[in-house]
């Protein structure tokens, strides 16, 4: 229900890779391959699995991202929560990666939406709340792009 | 800031201020449909998060949204936009190196 047209303030990054979905899926879900383009990790493609991405610490960031696998739909869809700064005081996002076969290879769409911890709403509910909120952001903040 | 806006009532009060401009606590109370002390508590949280500011005029307190309140949110969009484009570049070169 959240196309980028309806929710322009949810971050979406898309690209067509000239490689088949099977190969892109491996790069997204095999830990050692994932480490080569994302970050060092202990990811496994199992729903409910908690894992970490670890990078060099940066100013205002410990370098650690705490994640939980939310969706594993082989060759089609992968989603995980993305937590920075601990579950209590930190910030929580959801990352959703969608693969679609394209003529030239695979269309990969990354959507990141944010909401605060402590909000007990289900994932969809939280997403709806933020999409609605992001829709109103223009008036206050002006354009983002 | 994210936490201040996590509460649906608070978010709706904030959105009303961005839509209508400056509002008195009375008007916001009518809009929110909850007690005035409850509205005041929500406004205090928004004020601490620097999302709104207030001024007193006679016996009324007026609230307005801070125009630059959402800069941190714009920052995260820009930050993660650059992050994911960079990671997609790396994914592209990894895919080229991989067999089949």
Q: How would you describe what is shown here?
A:
The complex is a heterodimer of chains A (145) and B (100). Chain A has 145 residues and is α+β, with helices and mostly antiparallel strands. Chain A has a single domain, classed as START domain (Alpha-D-Glucose-1,6-Bisphosphate, Chain A, domain 4, 2-Layer Sandwich), CATH 3.30.530. Chain A is 23% helix and 38% strand. Chain A has helices at residues 21-29, 31-37, 123-135, 137-141; strands at residues 11-17, 40-41, 50-54, 64-73, 77-84, 91-102, 105-115. Chain A has a 7-stranded antiparallel beta sheet, sandwiched between helices. Chain B is an alpha+beta fold. Helices cover 61% and strands 14% of the residues of chain B. Chain B contains 4 helices and 3 strands, in the order αβααββα. In chain B, a hairpin with a 2-residue loop joins strand 2 (52-57) and strand 3 (60-65). The longest helix of chain B is centred in the last third of the chain and has 27 residues, at 71-97. The chains are: A alpha+beta (145), B alpha+beta (100).
What is the C-level CATH assignment of chain A?
A: Alpha Beta
Structural class of chain A: alpha+beta
CATH architecture of chain A: 2-Layer Sandwich
Name the beta content range of chain B.
5-15%
What value does the average pLDDT of chain A take?
75
- Spatially, the strands of the biggest sheet of chain A line up as 1-7-6-5-4-3-2
Task: Please tell me the total number of domains of chain A.
Answer: 1
Low-confidence stretches of chain B: none
Number of helical runs of chain B? 4
User: Remind me, CATH topology of the largest domain in chain B?
Assistant: Arc Repressor Mutant, subunit A
Reported for the largest beta sheet of chain B, the result is:
3 strands, antiparallel
- Tell me, what is the CATH class of the largest domain in chain B? Mainly Alpha
Instruction: Please state how the strands of the largest beta sheet of chain B are arranged side by side.
Output: 1-3-2
The appropriate CATH architecture of the largest domain in chain B is Orthogonal Bundle
Summed up, the helix count of chain A is 4
Structural shape of chain A: globular
Count of extended strands of chain A:
7
Whole-angstrom Rg of chain A: 16 Å
Shape of chain B: elongated
């Amino acid at each position: 229900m959240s196309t980028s047209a309806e929710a322009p303030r949810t971050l979406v990054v898309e690209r067509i890779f000239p490689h088949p979905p099977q190969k892109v899926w491996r790069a997204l879900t095999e830990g050692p391959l994932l480490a080569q383009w994302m970050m060092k990790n202990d990811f496994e493609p199992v729903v409910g699995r908690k894992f970490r991405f670890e990078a060099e610490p940066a100013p205002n960031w410990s370098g650690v991202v705490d994640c939980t696998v939310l969706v594993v739909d082989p060759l089609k869809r992968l989603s995980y929560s993305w937590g920075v700064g601990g579950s209590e005081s930190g910030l929580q996002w959801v990352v959703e990666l969608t693969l679609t076969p394209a003529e030239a290879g695979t269309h990969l769409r990354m959507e990141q939406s944010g909401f605060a911890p402590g909000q007990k709403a289900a994932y969809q509910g939280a997403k709806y709340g933020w999409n609605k909120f992001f829709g109103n952001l223009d008036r206050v903040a002006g354009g983002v792009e | 800031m994210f936490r201040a806006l996590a509460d649906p009532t608070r978010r709706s009060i904030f959105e009303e201020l961005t839509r209508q401009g400056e509002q008195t606590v009375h008007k916001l109370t009518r809009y929110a449909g909850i007690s005035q002390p409850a509205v005041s508590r929500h406004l205090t949280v928004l004020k601490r998060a620097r999302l709104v500011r207030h001024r007193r005029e006679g016996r009324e307190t007026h609230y307005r949204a801070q125009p630059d309140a959402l800069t941190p949110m714009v920052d995260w969009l820009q930050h993660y936009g650059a992050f994911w484009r960079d990671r997609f570049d790396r994914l592209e070169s990894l895919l080229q190196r991989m067999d089949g």
